[in-house]
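Database export, one record per block. Field names are fixed; values are copied verbatim from the stored entry.
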Amino acid sequence: MLKRPTLLPIIVAAVALVSVSAAAALYVRHPMSRGGRGAVPTSCAAPQLEGSVVNVTLSNRGGPMMMGSGHMGMMSITAQPGAVPTGRVSFVVTNTGSLTHELVVLPLAPGAHIGQRGVGPDNKVDESTSLAEASNSCGAGAGEGISPGSTGWVTLDLPAGRYELVCNIVGHYQAGMSTLLTVT
């Protein structure tokens, strides 16, 4: 007598395929899968902006696992050019790292140096004197952070002075994410 083929192997294979697909989708969408805050790499460019343009690059080496292993000094922020004239200044902020980052513009007091602000119990610096923030993936102004591979931007009027550009996501300032911008 001939045996009829059973549907069980097909059903098991279909369930396995659906399970793997669902797990992959959760990995891509889950906030911690790419370094926090729902980061999913998105490529985008800033529109044409007004005034002097400062290109800011936010980066880190390693992923979220590096954070817990004592390698906190592997983060950086750079600004080109490092000096601009007074007036309208636009910051184009690109995240080349694997973690979510942001840019906060803080005035720097005379005689103060970058990287020396006090850090509160929340592992962040005080933002009460912030002049602007670029933390919106593929958009202007404040948001939930700039995702890996994304760009954010902000434009403001700056008087002459020295400004500290920082990433103020928990622990990032202590990891070296600050740089100087001079406005003359």
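Remark 1: DSSP finds two helices and nine strands in the chain.
Remark 2: Residues 17-41, 65-72 have pLDDT under 50 and may be disordered.
End of record.
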